[in-house]
Amino acid sequence: MICPRCGADDDKVIDSRAAEDGYVVRRRRVCSACEHRYTTYERVERRRRLVVVKKDNARVPFDRSNILRGLQAACGKRPISEEVKEGIVDAIEAEIHQEFDREVPSREIGERVAAQLRAVDDIAYIRYASEYHSFRTIEEFVEEVTDLKGRTRDAEGQDVLFDE
Ligand SMILES: [Zn+2]
To answer: How confident is the model over 17-55, as pLDDT tens digits?
Structure first.
């Protein structure tokens, strides 16, 4: 610890005791250079557990296996490797922990998963987005399918997903 008086980096702890709720330790220190006595507080770094708020306002602890299960259900027998699914869950988990402090609406998670799936597989995406109500209206759904249809045609030169 740097001495607040003389700036020397040489001290001895002369007393340690728990403070507050036991997650904090208060230490009395003495500077070996100038004998100044001062106090430091050491705090346990607690990683807050994120809570997911569901549509009915129920709160459940964030659990990545729930995301993975939803993904697996949507992917069914689509040719999507487990690595890709795990990768999607990793990305969502990192994003959620970065953007949300304590609580995250389940809808936020659902929309992110849907967005990731959209880049991977059209069918799995539509299944997932329908299941998790990412579409607010039937018009929105139709618009999305039309959009995907255009994308498929662009990519393949013909319509492989939908018969006309
Ligand atoms: Zn000092």
So the answer is: 987 667 788 999 999 999 999 999 887 766 668 899 998
Q: In one letter, which amino acid is 116? A: Q
| Domain-located, residue 15 | yes
* Domain extent for 25: 11-43
Establish if 56 belongs to a structural domain.
yes
Query: 40 alpha carbon to ligand 1 midpoint, in Å?
Result: 14
User: Which residues does 53 contact at the CB level (< 8 Å), separation at least 6?
Assistant: 59, 103, 104, 105, 106
How many domains does the structure of the chain reveal?
2
Compute, in angstroms, the gap from residue 12 CA to the centroid of ligand 1: 11
Query: In angstroms, what is the span from residue 136 Cα to ligand 1's centroid?
Result: 65
Q: What is the pLDDT of residues 110-125, one digit of tens each?
A: 889 989 998 999 899 8
